[in-house]
Amino acid sequence: MYLETVNSPKDIKKLKIQELEKLAGEMRTALMHRLSNKGGHFGPNFGIVEATIALHYVFDSPKDKIVFDVSHQTYCHKMLTGRKNGYLYKEHFENISGYSNPEESEHDFFNIGHTSTSVSLAGGLAKARDLKGEKENIIAVIGDGSLSGGEALEGIDFAAELDSNFIIIVNDNDMSIAENHGGLYRNLKALRESNGLAECNLFKAMGLDYVYVKEGNNIEKLIEAFKQVKDIDHPFVVHINTRKGKGYELAEANREEFHWHMPFDVETGRATVNFDGENYEDLTCDFLMKKMKADPKVVAIVAAVPGVIGFTKEKRKEAGKQFVDVGIAEEHAVAFASGIAKNGGKPVFATHSSFMQRTYDQISQDLCVNNNPATLLVNTASVYGMNDITHLGIYDIPMMSNIPNLVYLAPTNCEEYFAMLNWSIEQTKYPVAVRIPCNGVIHTEKKVDTDYSNLNKYQIKEKGSQIAIIALGDFFQLGEQLAKEIKSKMSVTPTLINPRYITGLDEELLESLKAEHQMVITLEDGILDGGFGEKIARFYGPTHMKVLNYGLKKEFLDRYNVEDVLQKNRLTPGHILDDVERYRI
Amino acid sequence: MYLETVNSPKDIKKLKIQELEKLAGEMRTALMHRLSNKGGHFGPNFGIVEATIALHYVFDSPKDKIVFDVSHQTYCHKMLTGRKNGYLYKEHFENISGYSNPEESEHDFFNIGHTSTSVSLAGGLAKARDLKGEKENIIAVIGDGSLSGGEALEGIDFAAELDSNFIIIVNDNDMSIAENHGGLYRNLKALRESNGLAECNLFKAMGLDYVYVKEGNNIEKLIEAFKQVKDIDHPFVVHINTRKGKGYELAEANREEFHWHMPFDVETGRATVNFDGENYEDLTCDFLMKKMKADPKVVAIVAAVPGVIGFTKEKRKEAGKQFVDVGIAEEHAVAFASGIAKNGGKPVFATHSSFMQRTYDQISQDLCVNNNPATLLVNTASVYGMNDITHLGIYDIPMMSNIPNLVYLAPTNCEEYFAMLNWSIEQTKYPVAVRIPCNGVIHTEKKVDTDYSNLNKYQIKEKGSQIAIIALGDFFQLGEQLAKEIKSKMSVTPTLINPRYITGLDEELLESLKAEHQMVITLEDGILDGGFGEKIARFYGPTHMKVLNYGLKKEFLDRYNVEDVLQKNRLTPGHILDDVERYRI
User: Looking at the complex, does the CB of residue A89 fall below 8 Å from at least one CB of chain B?
Assistant: First the structure.
């Protein structure tokens, strides 16, 4: 087995083409071993095996520096740079992350998880090299799907100004997570169909030199192409045509499904883990489909992650013109939604909390300055969300809730979520964001409000005295547990409040608490800094009311265990009760 | 005079070409009247006179909807849509803003001030039109300078997916605020030089239909071109070549200087208002030039606003490869800076507070997740900064200071600012942002610290008791005044603290204040929500310490008077003293 002998890229440089091809086969076997057992990004890695071998064969990493966009396609790169055991052996699966990671290896230069960043980051490496008078090759590897992102387009446009070595490998498998969207993909198609010879060429139009490699899964052809650009003295695009999921028939046939896959049976391709119960993705899709059928002005918008609101291929087809995937283009998505709302449409843009970060300025300027009634749905916005350092969902409260005019709502159960979403779609006064619950689909039999236009009215769920608990969104259930604990341990019935609105204070209610309460506890599912609880602390700052804020520490977590993080942040009824007793004195 | 008779676009539709040309002359006279007396965007408006006339001649605004990018070129549009008096008569100058504004007119659809948004916003208008089954024309007008922005490129790429009427006017005057940067400008040049016939065409490469108008200041030619695309059934780019500053020789010759100009003498072109004293733009430039000469690894980066750090044409030339203008591309700028820092360079990226908003995700992911030692300089970050609703500098504290790993510093005078900047450039551990003071160049004769690596150590400037004032950055001088006032009116010597670090608490110092203080007052030059003071309130929440936070209300202000805003927010020693007396009980 060749792979077993590869401890660094040097070890593949001695191999012959046929041996490299055997190595490719072994790498696919190793990928399959990890992916079928643990899950992960399937299609991107199966498609880039040969290109990764050729890159490491031709270039001299880590002196030559390779930056992978999104870096979910770095499994093969990791195998060839001393981390093969993370694919070969179950007991080493946890040693490596799913993205490039400088802490793992000197061959990785950045922690990357968001799309469209590689060209700019690598451009910076190249600029520093030039300032220092050094000479290594700098290579950015970017997929076709990432090209529609503004950061990538800015970076590619600027690359032409670097008048020194800079190589951009465009790994074109004609696919984003779902299908691609945007006019540039017609140009990529024309380039593929003309063997790179079409006169109209996006990359040349951005000032870059260009070559096309038709057989992007042919090691020999790739090596030949890469050798031609090695040590080149100006920016150069190598456009390679690869096959997503190559080598596993089911993945080649179902490219969207096999972009990322949970553990599966290799024979059938079926998931071996079942998530049977209700989930907010499907529920949201059903809800929006109903709204769309009742009103042609309702339109759902996603940016390359239709799954966040359950829009499968079939549902997208069914929704027709009322569903829009803008591709990886979150900035466009929010400005587009603002324009739709301005002209009388009812847009709902949904994405992950972490990807909303892409569009702070558009939320502020295009949407909120203009006060247009678009709806933003923020998914996986929680400590219970994704747990890779690049995909955390615990920063959206400080990011979004301090933007003027935005109404940011935090539902505490399924019925309240859909009531809020329904209100948001139908109202015409405010830009509204809703934090989709992330702590399981919790139902209530009690009636929920249908109208949220009386802004910042908190809801008292249980009236008590001495201690008030203001429990926001996903942490409302923690608030309920805490209330119970306080009742049983302290013989005090605390007041329990569902604040519902992240973006404002119910000053009347807060004022009224002063009469019979000496302590207010806030709970929020996100970092404390810049968040919700601090606003309560500010309100009571000049008074005798004691305020205890609970939430997460401002830090970047990585691949964490939720229970550990909650413990460390004292986010359990037991810890909070201890604090209450300590501070009541 | 024709202009006097124009109350709506209808009034120009009856005019003959020659009359329209006379109108154009009158409009330039009116522009000159306002601009020489009041200042404003000169070049963009003088260049677009004819195109604006032709647009309103051919299309039927407001049914047909025109969205202007940045909207600093809407002066002519305003003249033709009922707002001519704002240009003809001094007493009406204040009636209109410098940007498009729906509150002024039904012909304006958005408040716009940031670049690169028009295509996406207009795309949304078009989408809503289609959902409603209506038929009007939707037109986005975007300058060549704005094309390098990620949001614009995302929008143009996606425009091809709108299979209905959508017209993009590319107003190409071969100039951004300063010269353009990026490879796409070579393509625009090739298109201009080939009369639009070059096979390689950025717009076609993004899937759009295209036509070129060589004489972009010829009303007749423009009318002809616009008539051809009116009611077109698919997205279409009309690329017009205009002359920035056309009609005023000095502006045509000095396009950067006359992009925006303060009041000036028409004869000589010289400013009639003098800002002679020291300013941070020039001081920062001098400082960076010195650093660059001492170390080839230092590199200053701007995104199309070299003026924010005083880099005039001459200084840019002098700095050579150590100065980079990435064009309008803030996302790229931050990722690029992170890459430079990673590879051993010493990058300093500077822009306005309002434009930093463009790059939240890049600060978070590309820079802070990777903890690379790049420096961000945040300019006009203050209530004393720009006062248009789209350019406010009062939101960067909540936006940036809650991102983990970032060290955000608030200097309180000139010497401290340069000491912090110098430390930031030379250290290699943290991503650092520095808020450039904005309340005048204030000097100190006292020694300032040169090393800020002991993070979050606040500085006690005067030790007192009972009341502590924590006065951040630009509001430190207000803190000094307040301390004086408290001393003289209350016979109490308060403790005065310069916190220096926006991003963290000096818990040891805060803890120590408990012994001899009953009240802490925080002052910050920005909105309170999500800001610095709330963190202090949270710290003292469980204790008996009273906390009073002072800063600005979370809202969008527009063309405000600083003194009024300070009064309204109780940001004067008198107001605060009243509160102190009230809450001490």
Answer: no
